[in-house]
Fold this protein.
Amino acid sequence: MTMTQRRKHLLERLRLLLSNDIGQRTGQLPLQVISENRPVLERFAKGQAWSLRFPTVLEVEFRGYCREQAKMTRAITALLTALIFVTAPAWTALLLQVPETTRQPTLYLSLFLLTPLFVGVSLAVLLKPRSAWVEALFMAAFLIDVAAIEFLRAQAEANGYQVVAVISVAVPLAVFSLGRLSALRSLVFTLLYAAVLVISASLSPWSGGARAETEVLTLFVVLSIALVATGFSQRTRRQNWALMQLMQLGAQADYLTGLPNRSALERHVEKWIRASSREAKVYSIAVIDLDYFKRINDRYGHLYGDGVLNEAAMTIATFARRPGDLAARVGGEEFVLFLYGCDPDCAQARLELLRASIEALNIENGDSPFGKLTASIGATTVQNPEAISASYEKADQCLYAAKRAGRNQVVLA
């Protein structure tokens, strides 16, 4: 297998293994995806990218994350709007002294359309916060809100009761600030909002429904400022999210090889230890150490040594090919291979093949008795689930036994 093929295989294995394990939490991507897109994320994190979009795989997760973060503010905004409308018949009569002819449609629209609508939107946001359809429903509900306000305003003015025409501008401002829409969706909402105003004015049988030029100018200025503010706010959110993803990568993956680090390994193994208890399956843990690696760095330099580590990492990763398997770098020239559902015979065969594969790379190591890169492997097969530290200690003792026996061999307990 060529280096390119091994690298592709490694990337695919990381995608499959980590997408459901490390990357399953809200707003977090699989480590392999973050690693692939590191340059893009670094540009956003440093504020050097002015694009309004990430690459598709990042954009989808970012939008879902933003919707999740806006869940409570969207739900509260919808509930407050429902509260305003459910009490509208009372406060329009007592405080605003709206004419009787206007109070009647206000009652019907508020209690039988708008209040149930916004209660439903609030529940949908709480139940499915990451859904794009729920976000579209949130936007549509407030557009219906605008249409209802325009209808009631025209009704009131037809009966001689003047209502400030810009009252409906509070709706898009609330949606922008509390709904936390993206810049593009905010622009779409603004255009639809303007369309609702134009259609409402053209269909209104009352001349009082038209807006004065100063009111139109006021709406334009206010909404333009809100859109610009939304754009800058979204840029900041993208910058913070990119930084968060890079921090996750640094915390869970080895920077040089891209393999999961010790922390990620422990989390993965703990998960599959619990699975082994439920499924009554065995598992094996192997500690792999590259023989005489320090001599490689001393003789050929650290750049050459880094290349050797990458080659070894790609080879080891190809042996973590089944569900539950994981290859990790735990420090220096030491790697760990977790093999789920692998009994002693399986482990012996696979690890011997791994040892031979590393040797077959034919990477020069002139200061090794073997003349090339080799690996010593110590492993243990666990019949009854135990703490990872206990299994690791047994495998480590086997590794020392392999070294004492001359290196470039597998010792299994």
